[in-house]
Structure formats: structure tokens, C-alpha cells
Q: What sequence folds into this?
């Protein structure tokens, strides 16, 4: 478990690593299933967070502006979590289509009957049954 | 009459429904929607690049940028309406369609969020102000194009 009181992050890689550990700690199963989708967005979040932190520390932006920026980041990461669910549905559709595209062609090539016109789109004449 | 002939003459329509590649999990690819969303995303990317180059650092530049924000928001609104009308074949595909609409609206919300920062404080480069918008709009574009080449 992270000791938040002593947490000192000096660069993007450290923050990415800490975030990955934290997400994996919440759910290893979720992290393993979604890390390929989430990794790039997590790095963007880490880079932007350190930019905001440095700008705030240097007085380039007031705390109120930093708060608005981080609220936008919160919304964006919430959307990223939704995006992982969406990509799971897309993958299911792609698996379904791939399966029945192949099956459709198997049947079409032997019978000339196209049972999956949305997936099987022959360019020439139907083969002889 | 062989089974093949029977299928050909009587049952093709019914059987085809089984294998038709219905949108059970995600809506089919829509090239027009993809084009509109990508175009809006490119405008968002240009806006972010201009902000990161310091064009909007002074909040006094906000009135001059309103047309840009409005143009992007209009394009995203059109895309969201089109995405909402995608044909679906089940509750999970409906959920995916609604998520796609949500991503486009999420992009729009982030454009409004950047406009609020711009109007109130100006957009100081390298402060993380544009990243959330780019992430949300990237996801909207990816969601719309997810079923391409499937």
C-alpha cells in the first residue's frame, strides 16, 4: 500500500509507475485486461498533471485555474474508463463478425448460398453448388 | 429437391438473419460520421496546438477565439446527432452506440472546459490545460472509427 504522506514524484515515469501500481492494486484483473487501451491515456494524464503541478508551484497559474484543469482531467479519465468498456463491446462484435464471415464463406463456396450478405460479399459469379 | 435447393428457394431470408453480421455488440461503421468526427477532431487539435504555442495565453484573446470554439462545437453537435441514429441489433449495441454519443459529447464538454479556462485565466502553455480535451476527443474519433475495416 502506498504511503501517500511520503509520496514524492519527480518525473513522469515515476508518476506513471505509481498510477499503474495503484490501478493494478485496485483490480489486477481489470488492469491486465485494459492496460493496452489505458496505458497511453495514463501517460498523458501523468504528463499533464506534472505540468499543472510545476505551473502551480511556479505561480504561472492560480490554484483556481489548476482546479479547473484537474476537474477536466477527472472528467477525461472517467471517459477513459467508459472507453475500455466500449472497446470490449467492439472486440465482441469483431469476434462475432470474424467467426461468421468465415462460416459464411465456407457455406457460400460450397453451395452458392450467401447466408451472411453483410459479411460475405463475393465479387464474381456464385460458385456452382 | 436437395437441401441446398430448398434453402435457395424458400429459406434464405430467414437463415440469412442468423448470419447477417447484425450489430449485436457495436454499431456498424459509418464513413460519413467518421469523416465529420475526424474533421472536428482535427479542429480541436489545431486549437490545442495554438493554445500550447501561446496564442491564447492572455484571456483578452478569448472574444477573438469564440468563433473557433463555436465552429468546433457545431461540428461535434452534428456528429453526435448522426451517431445517435446508428442502427443497432440489441441492448449491448445500443449501449455501445450511446457510449459513442457520450464520447462525442465528452469531447464537446472538454472544448467548453478549455473555453472556460481561456475566458477566465487565459491558456498558459505547458500547464496541462489542453490534454483532457485532446484525450476525450481522441477517444471520440477512435470510437467512431472502431468498426472500420471489420
A:
Amino acid at each position: 500500500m502506498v504511503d501517500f504522506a511520503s509520496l514524492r514524484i519527480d518525473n513522469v515515469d515515476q508518476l506513471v509507475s505509481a498510477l499503474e501500481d495503484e490501478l493494478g492494486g485496485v483490480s489486477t484483473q481489470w488492469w491486465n485486461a485494459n492496460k493496452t487501451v489505458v496505458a497511453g491515456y495514463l501517460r498523458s494524464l501523468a504528463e499533464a498533471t506534472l505540468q499543472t503541478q510545476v505551473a502551480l508551484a511556479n505561480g504561472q497559474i492560480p490554484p483556481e485555474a489548476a482546479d479547473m484543469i484537474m476537474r477536466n482531467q477527472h472528467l477525461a479519465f472517467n471517459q477513459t474508463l467508459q472507453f475500455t468498456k466500449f472497446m470490449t463491446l467492439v472486440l465482441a462484435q469483431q469476434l462475432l463478425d470474424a467467426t461468421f464471415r468465415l462460416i459464411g464463406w465456407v457455406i457460400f463456396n460450397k453451395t452458392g448460398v450467401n447466408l451472411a450478405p453483410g459479411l460475405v460479399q463475393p465479387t464474381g459469379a456464385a460458385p456452382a453448388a | 429437391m436437395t437441401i441446398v435447393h430448398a434453402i435457395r428457394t424458400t429459406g434464405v431470408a430467414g437463415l440469412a438473419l442468423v448470419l447477417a453480421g447484425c450489430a449485436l455488440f457495436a454499431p456498424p461503421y459509418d464513413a460519413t460520421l467518421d469523416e465529420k468526427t475526424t474533421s472536428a477532431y482535427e479542429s480541436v487539435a489545431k486549437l490545442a496546438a495554438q493554445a500550447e504555442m501561446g496564442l491564447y495565453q492572455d484571456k483578452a484573446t478569448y472574444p477573438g477565439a469564440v468563433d473557433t470554439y463555436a465552429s468546433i462545437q457545431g461540428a461535434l453537435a452534428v456528429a453526435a446527432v448522426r451517431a445517435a441514429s446508428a442502427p443497432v441489433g440489441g441492448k449491448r449495441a445500443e449501449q455501445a452506440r450511446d457510449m459513442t454519443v457520450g464520447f462525442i459529447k465528452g469531447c464537446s464538454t472538454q472544448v467548453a472546459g478549455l473555453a472556460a479556462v481561456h475566458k477566465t485565466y487565459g491558456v498558459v502553455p505547458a500547464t496541462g490545460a489542453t490534454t483532457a480535451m485532446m484525450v476525450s476527443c481522441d477517444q471520440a474519433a477512435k470510437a467512431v472509427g472502431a468498426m472500420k475495416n471489420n
Observations:
- Residues 4-81 of chain A form one domain.
- Chain A touches chain B through 51 residues (CB under 8 Å).
- Residues 96 and 126 of chain A are 24 Å apart (CA to CA).
